[in-house]
Amino acid sequence: MNLHKIVKIIVAVISVLSVVFLGGILASEDKDSSWISPLISVSYVVLVACIAIVILFVLKNLFTHKDTLKKTLISVGLFLAVVVVSFILADSSEVKTNGGIVSGSTSKLVSTGLNTFYFLAVIAIGTMLWTGFNKIKK
Question: Phi and psi at residue 32, in whole multiples of 5°?
Answer without folding.
Answer: -100, 75
